[in-house]
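Example record

One chain of 309 residues, shown exactly as stored in the release files.
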Amino acid sequence: MESFKSILVDIDATASAQPALERAILLAKRSGATLTVADAVTVPDYARHYLPAGIEERLVLDRRLQLARIAKQVSDVQAQPLLLVGRPATALIEEVLRSNHDLLLRSHARDLTTSGPSGFGAVDMELLRKCPCPVLLVRQGQPATTPRIACAIDASSEDPDMQALNRKVVELALLMARCLESDSPTLFHAWVPFGERAVRKYAVDDEFAAYLENARQRAGSSLTRIARSFEGQFDARATVLRRGEPQEVIPEFVVSEGIDMLVMGTVARGGISGMLIGNTAERVLRKLPCSVATVKPDGFVSPVRLENH
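Predicted structure tokens for this chain:
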């Protein structure tokens, strides 16, 4: 995966802390990418009927000035302010398409009002479902200087599309580690023995134990094969194999190992290409307390379209 060339970061210009902006500045500086600092303003249709004349324009102007001040304070990299008007997710994706940005950042769950660890907000999820470029959702709080990065892959899959997505996930994790000058990422694979309940029901204990051990070895071999395909960028200690459903063991691993950023792929489901992320990915995301970077499969086409295109 080539280094980032054009980074778009979505911020709330009225907020006191900007964790996504801090991370975006560092990534842009170390990758040599351009940086666009955006904010989206949405005035609901119902509110327009009650706002005094000129108030909407004033609100937009005030936000534009706030955004310009924030961009001007950015050091070490030139930041271009951009105020978007409209539904945030749609406006951001349209900007990605219009300007060919290759990374979009946003503060994780910033549109939620709950305190403490929280799930992803509606804008977050829409970006994960529809944005064509990689998306990095940065958790609240001070970003780690040298974050611990892990990537979750389906190493046992024999599907060519999933295998291609695995490589994109690993490549994005390696690129993030290189730009953020962190240690080599950890490759994580959650494995579940095929037909475990049925085998357990009909096999004797020794047969079942042998079946599980064979399944574990096959999963481990698949994970090691992927690590070795990246020519020395990973060693045996950089691979982690855990038995269990991904939505359970991935969050447990993230918490127990103090992972700061998880890289994963999103897969369309339900036959609606370009609209929804996979069931497993959604269940994992709901439980993650860390920053999350996602990448789409090859051939993904966003359902968001630019006018006159």
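Notes: The mean pLDDT is 87.
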